[in-house]
Amino acid sequence: MAFSDAEGNSSVIKGGRKRKRSEATLRPSLTKWRTQGEQSSYSTKLYEALRRVHRSSPSTAVNRRSQNVREAADRALAVAARGRTRWSRAILISHKPKLKLKARRPRPAVPSSKRSKMLAFVQGEHSASKKTKKSTILEDKAVVLGRLVPGGRKLSFPTLLEEASDYIAALQMQVRAMSVLSAILSSSTSNESFHQEPDRINF
């Protein structure tokens, strides 16, 4: 009995060590965005990205320019992540120039009778699947979360939670950096702030 107890205690200790190790491996990914070094690195990248947007589109419409600013901020955030996460890689891939695809040949028209039969079949299958497949609340939330996190649609739930935690921490840092830059720009009456040195942009 003593031997089995010792084994049980040792297994608990080993399990505790494994748990601590897993927590230790997750901890840096959640706290790295709160360090001064990461904030300074991102603020510099964001500053340079906004300068490029300012130089390349000085007379662009307001809606398009705000979209360019959002894309530049997200791209700078992904670069700051150094491709270590799936969401950062998904952002970088989505901003790559897309190749022009060749125009496809038009498909022959389906007769109306066949089309109506196909629609009826698809609708019947869809209604049947709705009745047979009832998603749980957790699965529904996972689907929504997967849509919000870049590259998170096909991830397993534990990996999705890990990516979402890191992405939220990164977005919080992005908000802080953009708030500082917004305060700097709003305090100036001209565009002189875009000629300011990056190391003067502090949190």
UniProtKB/TrEMBL annotation:
Q: Would you tell me the Gene Ontology cellular component terms?
A: nucleus
Write the record's keywords in alphabetical order, separated by commas: Nucleus, Transcription, Transcription regulation
Where is each IBH1-like N-terminal domain found?
A: 39-92
Q: Give positions of region: Disordered.
A: 1-40
The yes or no answer to whether the keyword Transcription is present is yes
A Pfam entry, by short name:
IBH1_N
Respond yes or no to whether keyword Transcription regulation is given for this record.
Answer: yes
- Provide any one GO MF term from the record: transcription cis-regulatory region binding
Query: What processes does the entry annotate via GO biological process terms?
Result: regulation of DNA-templated transcription
Q: Which family does it belong to?
A: Belongs to the bHLH protein family.
What is this protein called in UniProt?
A: IBH1-like N-terminal domain-containing protein
- Source species, please? Vanilla planifolia (Vanilla)
